[in-house]
Specification:
The chain is mostly helical. Strands 1-2 form a two-stranded antiparallel ribbon. The radius of gyration is 14 Å and the shape is flat. The protein is built from 3 helices and 2 strands; from the N terminus they run ββααα.
């Protein structure tokens, strides 16, 4: 049996703005209550999690 799978993300000239990984991280932050706990629950380093969130914030600033 075949399965259709895809991944969707939003990007601009700077690169990926929002994708599945960042959404999962944001949801984990909401659930766990902290970036540190969210990163740990996703088996991701704190530094990588911080960089993903920081990049997202940087991209959002001009829109606010």
């Amino acid at each position: 049996m075949f399965q259709l799978k895809s991944r969707i993300w939003i990007e601009d000239k700077e690169g990926i703005f929002l994708g599945e990984g960042r959404i999962q991280l944001l949801l984990a932050i909401e659930k766990e209550g902290s970036l540190s706990k969210a990163a740990k629950s996703m088996k991701m380093s704190y530094k990588k999690a911080w960089n993903l969130v920081d990049a997202l914030i940087s991209l959002l600033k001009p829109l606010l």
